[in-house]
Amino acid sequence: MNTFIKISVASVLMGTTVLLASCSNLLDVTPRSSASSETALTTAEGLDAALNGIYDRLQSTVLYGRDFLALSEALSDNAQATNKSGRLNNESRNIAQASFTNWGTSYLAINQANLIIGATANATFLSDTAQKNRIMGRAYFLRALLYHDLMRAYAYDPGVEIAQYNRGGVPLVTTGVSGQDQITFPARASIADVYKQIYSDLQTAIPLLSATNIPAYGSRPAAQVLLSRVALYNKDYATAVQYATQAIAPSNPALAVPLLANSSYISGWRAPNHPESLLEIVYTTPENIGVNTSLQTTYTTLVRSGDRSTTGGFGDLVPSTAFLNDLEAEKSSTGAVLDIRRQLYELGTTGRGPAFIECTKFLGKNGIINLDNVPAIRISEAYLNRAEANAMLGNNTAALSDLNTIRTRAGLPASTLTDNTAILTEILRQRRLEYGFEGHRWFDLKRRGQDVVKVQGNVPYTDYRILANIPSSEFATNKNLRQNFGY
Amino acid sequence: MRKLLFGSWLLSLFFCLSVMAQDATVSGRVTSSDDGSALPGVSVQVKGTTRGTTTDANGRYSITASPRSTLVFSFIGFTNQEVPVGNRTNVTVTLESSANALNEVVVTGYGGTVNRREFTGASSKVSGNTIATLPVGSFDKALAGRAAGVQVTSASGVPGGAVQIRIRGVGSISAGSDPLYVVDGIQLNNSNSSSFTSSNPLAFLNPSDIENIEILKDAAAASIYGSQAANGVVLITTKRGKAGKTQVSLNYYKGLSDPIKKLNVLNTQEWIGLRTQALINAGTSADAARSTVLSTLRQPTTLSDAEIAALPTYDWQDAVYRRGNTDNYELSLNGGNEKTRFYVSGSYFTQDANIVNVNFRRGTLNTTLTHQISNKLTLEETIKLSTTTSNGQFGSPSGGSFLGAAAFSSPLILPSVPIYNADGSYYGTPAQGGIPGILNQNILQVSELNTIRANTNQFNGGIALNYKITDNLTLRPFVSLDYRAIRGKYFSDPRTADGFNVRGRIQDQFNENKNFLTNLTLNYNQTFAEKHTVSALLGAEYRSDINENLGTNTINVPTPDFQYASAGALPQSISGGWTGYRKASVFANLKYNFASKYDLSLIARYDGSSRFGSNYRYGLFPSISGAWLISEEPFLKGKSLVSDLKLRASYGTTGNDQLGSLFGLANFPGLGLYSAGYDYNGAAGFAPTQLANPDLKWETNTTVNLGLDFGFLQNRLTGSVDVFNRTSTDLLLAFNLPVTSGYGSISRNAGSVQNKGLEVELNSTNVQAQRFKWTSSFNITFIENKVTKLYDGIAPLQNPDSAITVGYTDFYGVGRTAILGRPLQAQYQIQYAGVNPATGRPMFYDYAGNITYTPTSPRDLKYLGTELPKFYGGFTNNFTYGGLSLDVFFQYDYGRRSFNSQTSFLTELAGRNFNALKDVYDRRWQNPGDITDVPRTINGNAETRGISSLSGSRTLEDASYLRLKQVTLSYDVPAAFSSRVKVSKARVYLQAANLLTWTNWTSYDPEFLNLGSGNSGLVPNSRTYTAGINLTF
């Protein structure tokens, strides 16, 4: 019987182990370096963290880390590639498919915004209205920015569509996906529908956002300038004027973001935070994009202004002769260049080959090489948007007034033009010079249906390369999607 | 509850069946047939029970057994003997030494062993003696060519570096393909968590401590390990003490290693001429080309021909390659009595690679203890401690870009570039603007000043109790811990290129892995009516494996003297992570033997893992196998031609739980996840990164194996032949999702891969004379690998093949493409067609086989082989004359097609500012009418309206090789002499490793792993000469 007892003991031992083994929570291991999607958005802190997750996407090199500034310059007539690292060579020569690649990153960020909007709208845990407004306002604002940037890269702008090439806007997804069953296979929405959504998002965001300028996140003036920009692209000039004015002269004048004066214009570009910024993508030390693709390395070999003895980055993309000529066009009687913006371009080093005149708007302003905050929306744009919209509406006086604000600030004499076309031309020229190497040129030419004239080879507006190609992997999974013409 | 009842039911069954008998004490002595000497440590077992003992130092034993029982005497290297007890109280036997494969003991896992005669699965055994003296950092490297079905590839020649073992091919597309490693019952965590060096989690083990290695290959052998067994199981048994006088054994060897080969590259004058021609061919005028080339070299452009002819050439390969050094010191103590036996060993191993500043140091301490607490209770314990330090190469698999790697860059640096300045300082430091050419780092400076290091401390311990409930029934609880802590360090010296602009960078890593395992097994063994032997194993197991990582990165140190983090003025980043998984399982094995002729084995394991999706937490992995010992049948028994003949057959399934990626979210592939690190403006952020897939489960392997074991002519010729069909299904594939959904892809169980193979192992005694003996063993494995299923709806490529392909990143981080109907790791490329003799332009084949200068992808892609071998194996010959023994071992690997990325750069022929291979230079096209495979040199490597001359299959090479891997000459000093100096055994040996290699591979070494950047920057294996002495007191 002794043996029997032992066997019983053994079988109980075994049984316990077996029971333990089949007990299901024994095998539930919760990740600690990541969070479950079921609980991530169920607290106010979680929603804030999720919002930061969208801003983090904006830092990507395919968005404001590089491409939405540098590619717009490379593709247009503002810049030429130096072949020092070989980067942006193809973009500068407008080689097919060498264009914007923000499709994936933008949609990842849009889904994040959709999830936040969905979670916040019905949140019972958000008792603080201010907090709820801030989260909703930012999520709508970011979604509008992301959709507009997708439209700028992949679709024709309203009013200048080439009918036989037009494949519509971009797929419009406004509901967050957190499970496999929520995945949809959307076709491209019409251009008008996407613009309608962007308008709606911005109009929702504006009253929710803080009236005080908070450049790192974008608040009410940023959304207003963005809407004036969107309206300008939409040829909806009255709206462009309306929102530009609201940004320039808010109801509480104390909250107005002033233009930089002539005397502080250059130093504004040397400070870590540009004083004119309404939305400025912030980079902290660990987020340094580094020596290969940061804006500093892309634009210049210099590590500091005036020091040609130390070579830093590659200086892959430098101003074209045409751009420099435009910048130097107005001279004093002694032959000195009047435009103070010319001071933001200087001769680089020979450390990586022949020296070029390089853009120094991004020079490791945050104190470390290759680390620069990136202004995405500046208050100057409100003046230029309003000037252009007024000119398009035939309001020459109003247009000239804003134009001269920009001109005189740059050290140029006030313009006395009277001809509407001439005023418009000068507004666009100032836009080119004011926003040199800040990523407007390609989109400004495109939205106006203009040909790109450059020494590397012209790109007529009717060329299919005006639009970027949608990544081919999308067509393998989504049969409803159509590629842009020509690709 | 049902399981509990089932368990109790089984146990009661055992109880009812157990038969009690009248026992008496039997004693006696066991001697060797070789010289009549006593054999200590022989296992003496009462047949059909687990009751047993071992002989003492004088070969004596004593055991309780009934007169009706049979005693089984077994000892490694000797034929088992079964002796019926009868009425005797003294049974003395003489064991025959044996080379008979069928008599060896097969280790089957969970403390089990079985005689090969009764084994129904497919396994290969490698004895510890075979690998003990090889001068390698880890035992796995020494397994190459030793066992059929087992492909062993060193990632590189880095001492103690990564080694890849593939058992019966590759059966996963994007999941892991590593076997499960079990050391003395401890299931190892073998993920490589070192950030900066190529490290090997198996390097903690001193190869000399290994008694034997059993490699379980088919489902029948491996399915007891369930969802971890799909890629095979490697069971390592380490040495345990033998009763008798304490033996002290000393082993020392010293090795020197030289590079297998150096590459013959151009001298300064040849390079200047070639580069000038490249520029001229691209349209530059001769004068401009000459001055451009001279200014590239930072020479005055006014140099005359005579001055150019006088320019010196510097040999960078000479500067960075070294004679490597290996030293190994070992001391072991082994002894005990009938109750307590121990084996204690310590070792210190150092190896310097044959390239500057790459080395490996290891200290180990190993103790094993076996103690009989009572007649019923035995304790088995093992503790292994080790500490290793490896200094890795800049550009080794995880430490920096290969462009700075000494092995990669040394043949490519322009030949006129000096290594040192006249004053002995490094030439071309970043402060001086670097060295001329694209590779602008002085690699000697980079290698000597930077520190890339990993310190790994490992603890490996296990304890088991064997409790004999009855003579037939043993309960065995087992607990183990496999602990590993890695301290990684990467110091970029501020004087070197990577540290110059940031004024020095210090990166530290701390990684800790805790792998806890416990199991409880119950063993039952009974013989009924003489002929029916039943044995059963029932077990339950729990494993928890947790990994934590911390990394820091800081820049800006005051001077290079400050190499620790607190000296860095600007901290850059801190990273930390946690990952872990748990497993819980029950398993059973039922074996039945009839009349020592027929064997049947049933295995089932019910395995759960937290890695699997919530809908598939548990999986069942069963197998069935049988064997027929034909030679025991009357029609063969006693025939002299056929000594042994056994037929085996098995069918079963195993699982693969190595999901995800080696580095990423490997343990949570089925969960919906938000990941951290999406920070903004100094505030924490997260983002959704993975969609939940509750249906995600293990990958399933179904293996059919047919095997024949044979021994002919009194076992002068033995061996086995196995054919197998391993079908891997439910393979994880990343399904692309429309990214408009916010996700790029999701992993689902979808793909299938088939591995069909044939394995042959042959051992023969060719000559057996009085004092001379010549034996050979040979093994070969043929494997045909094929992707049999991807998923539906993949748009075929627009080419005549209409190939269905899926791009994926494999478990090891290498981007690959799977092609339906082709082997994995396929080379799908544009085919190079040689050179147009009239113009020297490179030509390619288009899809129709016509010559084109501008092939397009995918239209002209063709399948051009795979990186998997067609066949591989090894061949050993051993010659013994008295105490003198010569062992000659060849290893071969045939049919791998790999890109020679190192050669690719060297083949540019100065199209860019790199040096070039002399023999490619000699073969280049120069004049119309030249028939050659090397196009004319041209700046930028591409002719006008042509693609790069290095495109397509131009540098796709055959990496097959036959290698004289090991030649060992050893001499056992005669006892008559050695005993005079109080040494009981003395052995001296000389060994050469990698002595000769036959291959068409054009750069250093055809044995390497493509870890993403081909063979660029890998430290090649070396040719090593070793001398050693082994003394036993």
TrEMBL record, chain A:
Domain SusD-like N-terminal spans what residues?
27-232
Q: Which family does it belong to?
A: Belongs to the SusD family.
Q: What keyword terms does UniProt attach to this protein? A: Cell outer membrane, Membrane, Signal
Q: Which Pfam families match?
A: SusD-like_3 (PF14322), SusD_RagB (PF07980)
* SUPFAM superfamilies in the record: TPR-like (SSF48452)
User: Which InterPro entries does the record match to this protein?
Assistant: SusD-like_N, SusD_RagB_dom, TPR-like_helical_dom_sf
Q: Which organism is it from?
A: Spirosoma oryzae
Kindly provide the name given to this protein in its UniProt entry.
SusD-like starch-binding protein associating with outer membrane
From TrEMBL, chain B:
Q: Which part of the chain is the TonB-dependent receptor plug domain?
A: 117-233
Entry-linked InterPro entries: Beta-barrel_TonB (IPR000531), Beta-barrel_TonB_sf (IPR036942), CarboxyPept-like_regulatory (IPR008969), Plug_dom (IPR012910), Plug_dom_sf (IPR037066), TonB-dep_OMP_SusC/RagA (IPR023996), TonB-dep_OMP_SusC/RagA_CS (IPR023997), TonB-dep_rcpt-like (IPR039426)
The answer to whether keyword Membrane applies is yes
One GO cellular component term of this record is: cell outer membrane
State the compartments where it is located. Answer: Cell outer membrane
State which residue ranges cross the membrane. none
In terms of superkingdom, the source organism counts as Bacteria
- Where does the TonB-dependent receptor-like beta-barrel domain start and stop, copy by copy? 448-828
| Topology in membrane | Multi-pass membrane protein
* Residues making up the signal peptide according to the UniProt record: 1-21
Keyword tags: Cell outer membrane, Membrane, Signal, TonB box, Transmembrane, Transmembrane beta strand, Transport
Family label: Belongs to the TonB-dependent receptor family.
Name assigned to this protein: TonB-linked SusC/RagA family outer membrane protein
Q: Which organism is it from?
A: Spirosoma oryzae
What are the top taxonomic ranks of the organism? Answer: Bacteria, Pseudomonadati, Bacteroidota, Cytophagia, Cytophagales
